[in-house]
Amino acid sequence: DTLQHVNESKHIAVYHKGRFFKVWMFYDGRLLLPREIEQQMARILADKSEPLPGEEKLAALTAGDRTPWAQARETFFVRGKNKHSLDAIEKAAFFVTLDDTEQRYDAGNPVKSLDSYAKSLLHGKCYDRWFDKSFNLIVFKNGTMGLNAEHSWADAPIIGHLWEHVLSMDPVRLGYTDEGHCCGEPHPNLPGPQRLSWDIPAECLEVVESSLTVARNLADDVDSHIFPFNDFGKGLIKKCRTSPDAFIQIALQLAHYRDKKKFCLTYEASMTRLFREGRTETVRSCTMETCAFVRAMIGGETREDCLKLLKLAAEKHQNLYRLAMTGEGIDRHLFCLYVVSKYLGEDSPFLKEVLSEPWRLSTSQTPLQQLELFDLVRHPEYVSSGGGFGPVADDGYGVSYIIVGENLINFHISSKHSSPETDSHR
């Protein structure tokens, strides 16, 4: 796989009921206005044509093993209409799925509704997302929306920043008419979306079905759970003079120990965006100080002793986070040593041991309100529930969390059904 930058892209690719469309986002020398974009989407929704043979599940090629997809590209997509249509998708700014299912947050049943919402965004039907794209924008039948982002090109705060703009610009800055349309008028001469054409032979269909089977097995194994915690939040934690991130990380260690009766190597992503093109560094948050606090809590030590150990653990965590943010972490250094050793052909038993240990608890915080685009107190409905990711280890957990305002923390917990050691709902 390679990363490709299509800086001059002026169109998007849209999938609806098994059909692919190319939609230009520019016309007459300017970007389309919101009402004109609505006009194009309405045209797609009104299109009653059937999918071409093999078209409906074609995107499953991007969801399965990479080698069969690479081989299929070279065999079936290097010439003619297939190449033309594939280029239209791959050179699009991003991919949009007009999903024919409905998802929403149900205040009466928040956990079940959010779990269903997240699973749909994560993989959908395994053939209605184009997983090679940097991100997929999914719009459900009832108007709710979400994103599926590929991770290699960027980290969560980048997509989070984008989504904050969407959530604030749409209702606060742009608005709608009383009839529910985007403000403005349709364009009388705007060319409609272009339907993409395919000629999919039987041999390619076999690869599609094989990839779909692989993808469904992977998707069905994901145990995803969204847990809105509102007993208290950042406000109370800060009143106790403790870092909210440190508090949450220590709480995760306590929860993991109660779940598995043991500690594990823990990964927390720290941003290194103080540096040009900075990505992440690792905070190894399962420290000796945190372990001491967990043992004290489990062992029923006095409240005073537990509070003292909690303070020490939080201070240690904050210090590690600062070091990671400022380029003083160890894991990217170890990775560079590994790359150099491979280049020189030198075998390093130390690096092999250190870098092969599984991260059975992989964690990350998604920052909220990177810019003050709207008043969170006055408009709590404009806030995203955050995002999640799968477990890094087959017998481990993935935990993403987002701190919302003063009194809410959303947790996204993932594991695998196939592991007898894990249970995301537990």
What's the SSE blueprint?
Blueprint: E1 11-16, E2 19-24, E3 26-27, E4 30-31, H1 34-46, H2 66-76, H3 80-90, E5 95-98, H4 110-123, E6 135-139, E7 145-149, H5 156-174, E8 194-195, H6 202-221, E9 222-229, H7 234-239, H8 244-260, E10 266-271, E11 280-283, H9 288-298, H10 303-325, H11 331-344, H12 349-356, E12 361-365, E13 397-404, E14 408-416
Helix pairs in contact: 8-9, 8-10, 9-10
Domain Choline/carnitine acyltransferase: 1-426
Protein name: Carnitine palmitoyltransferase 1
GO biological process, one term: carnitine metabolic process
Question: What can you see in these coordinates?
Answer:
- By secondary structure, the chain is of the alpha/beta class.
- It folds into two domains: 11-221, Chloramphenicol Acetyltransferase (2-Layer Sandwich); 230-326 and 358-416, 2-Layer Sandwich (Chloramphenicol Acetyltransferase), CATH 3.30.559.
- Helices cover 39% and strands 17% of the residues.
- It has twelve helices and 14 strands.
- Strands 7-6-5-1-2-8 form a six-stranded mixed sheet, sandwiched between helices. Strands 9-14-13-12-10-11 form a six-stranded mixed sheet.
- The longest helix has 23 residues, at 303-325.
- This is Carnitine palmitoyltransferase 1.
- Belongs to the carnitine/choline acetyltransferase family.
- Keywords: Acyltransferase, Transferase.
- Pfam families: Carn_acyltransf.
- Residues 1-426 form the Choline/carnitine acyltransferase domain.
